[in-house]
Predict the 3D structure of the following.
Amino acid sequence: MKKINKKDIEGEEVETPEEETEETTEETEESVDEAVDEVTEKIEKKLNLKELREKLDKVLGSKESEMAKKVFGIGDVKKNVEDLTKEEKIVGFFLSLLNNDKVGLKALSEGVAADGGYLVPDEFMAELIRDLEEPTRMRSLVRVIPMKRDTMKIPKLGSKPKVYWTAENTTKTTSTADFEEKTLTAYKIAAILYASEELVEDAYDFDVVQLIIGLFSEAIAEEEDKVITAGTGTGQPTGLTSCTISGVTCSGNLDFDNIINLVYSLPSKYRKSAVFLAHNNNIRELRKVKDSQNRYIWLESVIPNEPATILGYPIYENNNLPESSIYFGDFKRGYWLGDRRKITVKVSDIAGSAWEKDQIGIRVVERIAGNCVLEAAIRVLSSIP
C-alpha cells in the first residue's frame, strides 16, 4: 500500500503503514479507515462543508431552486441574464420581487418604467397573456389591438352611400358616405396582491412559476373583465354597458321567445360568430327555459372545457353585467381592447399592513384602452325582471 501522509488541519499526524505486507491485519485496516474518517470530519467541520451540503441538498431536488441558484449566482453556476432560459428568467424575476432585490429586478426587467416600477420580462409577459386569454376571460372574446401610443383614432363608417335608379339623360341623385371616428385612450389599471414570507421560504416545494403566473393573471383579469364590461369611460376604458347598443325589451319573465327575439334582432352577418354574455342569476334561469316541445334550450358541450350553447351559440358567464340585461353579439367586431403591452410591478414590505403580517405587497400596473367600435355587431336584451 502506497504511503499516505495524513495530517489534519490542526497539525496532528496519523500514522499509516509505509507499505502493505502479508502481516497487515483487519484491525490495522480499520484503524486506517477511522483515521481517514476523522480527518475528513475535521476538514468538513473547519470548512463548514457539512452544513453547506445539507442546505444544498434541501433545495437541489427542486427544478425551480436550481434555476434560482443560476439567477442569483450561487457557486459556479452563475449566468449572464442573456444566457438564462425563459423559465429561469420567470423564476428569477419573481424571487427578486419577493426578496425585494432591486439589483436582480433591474437586471431581469425590460427597460425602465415611466412610473418608477419594473417592466416584466417578455418571457413573463408571454406566459401571463396566455393565461389571460382563457375562454372565460373577456380579453379572449374581444379584439385585442396593440397600441404604440397612448391614443389611437379609429375611423368608422357612420352611413353608407345610397344608390338610385335613374333614367337616360336625367340628373343623377348624389349621395355621400358619412365617416365617424372612435378613439382608444390608454388608462392605467392597478391590482395589489400580497405574498407571505412563508411563500418565499416554501417556494422550492411546488411549481412556483405556475403559481405566480396564476396570481398575476387573476389580479389583472379581474380588473380587465370589470372595465371591458362596465367601464365608465371616465378615467378608465368604456365598457359595454356604457356604449349605445340597441336591442329588445324583455316581455314578462325570461323565456324562449325573448331569447329568439334577441338572437334575430342581430343582423345575420354578425350572428355567425356571436356569443351570449349573461350574469350568473340569468344563467340559472336560462337553464330552466324549455322550448315548445318541453326540451331545455340549454345544451352542455360534449367537449371538455368548451362552453354550453343556446340555439347553437356559446354562452359565457359575466357577473359584472347587470342582472337586468343579457348581451349577444360578435364582440371581436364590436369591441376593441387597446393593449399597450406594458405591465409594471412595484414591491413593498411596508405598504398597508404588510409589515405587521410579514408580507410582501406586489402592485401590478397595466395600461389598456377599450371602447365599442361597431355597436351594430352587438344587441342587448334589457329590462329582465
Summary: Residues 1-12, 55-65, 70-77 have pLDDT under 50 and may be disordered. The domain at 129-205+227-385 is CATH 3.90.1690 (phage-related protein like fold). The two ends are 97 Å apart (CA to CA). The first helix runs from residue 26 to 47.
